[in-house]
Amino acid sequence: MLYHWSEALVSTFHFLNVVHYITFRAMMGLLSALFMSFLLAPWLIRTLQTKQIKGIIRKDGPQSHFSKAGTPTMGGTLILFAVLLPLLLWMDWKNSFNWISVFLFAGYGVLGFWDDYQKIKYKNTKGVTGKGKLRVQILLAVIAMSVHYYLTPEASILYFPFFKNTSLELGWLYIPFAVFIIVGSSNAVNLTDGLDGLAIVPIMIAAGCFGIFAYVSGNTVIADYLHFPFIRNAGELTIFASCLVGASLGFLWYNAYPAQIFMGDVGSLPLGGAIASIAILSKHELLLVIVGGIFVVEAISVITQVFSFKLTGKRIFRMAPIHHHFELKGWPEPKVIVRFWIISIILGMIGLLSLKLR
To answer: Scanning 59, 65, 282, 357, which has its CA 20 to 30 A from the CA of 237?
Structure first.
């Protein structure tokens, strides 16, 4: 909104030219989202407490979690508003990449809200059925990626990180490939969100890394120098990524151990989808496996646990996702959280090495 207003007023007020710079709008988006989080969070926590919107604790989970009963949930609504409202101010809404990423973010947010609502209404951890949730996730991702495929000439090209000028043309097969990444990322973040603040810091790190990748890919000079694929208009995704970082940082203030509010599916599902969409649109899909390695490991721990139990009747981990395994081994919850954060920072730095290692 402010971006388009500045275009009309810059001839009169020359200082508004600064709004045209992606770096300026990215920083303003981050600060706006952070301010919005701090502004809305106290009110949201009080409202959720008043309306008895409490998190449902798994009965088969670690006993140490039972003391968390009564903590407000659906805090992801704070993240949704803290991201979307600054985006209205700072993004270029003529850019198709912005519409695609926001469509996925908002769509998955609505799905997560309905899932949390069902859990609270019926006071159980089931919510929307797994198959029903998966169908909606796939449908939204198919719509978004189909639009991307038909609007973007280079959409179907898969680039390999750490290798210069190495790519693979997937054609229409890119659509199911991208859908798999989006749905997988969304659910992986959802699985990771099991301890206070555990998921939100890796989200910030991933958003920051992919914001940098998007900026580099959208700048023809820098992309050429670093041997990155140049993706026209991808730089605008930097503002979206920055808003994710700002909103997540503000949410962490209240979600850090011991949490005053839980994220819920209304936060984890759209955040996972948002990270995947930035990675896909900026053509760094494969780096998501590295930068989002914590989410990958959490998802794999659940998959292997289920398959092992069904095939052999034995469990690989004491409990899945894997963060519960370490809790049951005697690690205090804060130690599990901080160590996972450290691993996520290391993975983010490895991902950033691809800026120079080509």
So the answer is: 357
